[in-house]
Amino acid sequence: MPRPRKWRRVCSMPDNSRFGPLDDADAVRGVVAMTVDEYETIRLIDLDGTSQEECAAQMNVSRSTVQAIYDAARRKLAQSIVEGAILQIGGGEYRLCDGTSGHCGGRGCHRRRFGHEGVEPIPEEVPPPKE
Ligand SMILES: [Zn+2]
After folding, report:
1. For residue 52, how far is its CA from the centre of ligand 1 (angstroms)?
2. Where are the alpha helices (DSSP H) in the chain?
3. 94 C-alpha vs ligand 1 centroid, how far in Å?
């Protein structure tokens, strides 16, 4: 019997999904595909300073799974900045956090930040300036 799929909780989607060399477009060496759950480990561990244990709890996976996701994410980051590959973020086995679960630590959780404290989200589209 196949193991039931365990969704990885992601609290914040990336604002940008493509990164790459800006100096020389001809120097681009391929594309590295990073999943959204891999991105989430970089955000939580490297940016927010979350421990791998806390990160595992927030993403609803085991510590060893977080370790594996994080290792893959770090390797892809390195490939991009060292080898000059475009980093493309998208897909993966994740479910966007709805901010209502007791296990969500709320670190950078979009729903919590914008939905649970009565703060209006920033509009996606900025109207064009009037002439
Ligand atoms: Zn959350």
Report:
1. 16
2. 36-41, 52-59, 63-83, 110-115
3. 12
Q: How far is the CA of 83 from the centre of ligand 1 (A)?
A: 33
Output the tens digit of pLDDT for each of the chain's 131 residues.
Answer: 666 667 899 999 999 999 999 988 787 889 999 999 999 999 999 999 999 999 999 999 999 999 999 999 999 999 999 999 999 999 999 999 887 665 676 667 775 444 444 444 444 455 566 66
Contacts of 8 (CB under 8 A, 6+ apart): 37, 40, 59, 60, 61, 65, 69, 92, 93, 94, 95
Phi, psi for 76 (deg, rounded to 5) = -70, -40
How far apart are the CA of 64 and the centre of ligand 1, in A?
21
Distance 23 CA to ligand 1 centre (A): 36
What's the gap in Å between 31 CA and the centre of ligand 1? 29
CA of 84 to the centre of ligand 1 (A): 33
Distance, in Å, from the CA atom of 40 to the CA atom of 51, rounded to the nearest integer, reads 13
Coil, helix or strand at residue 9 = strand
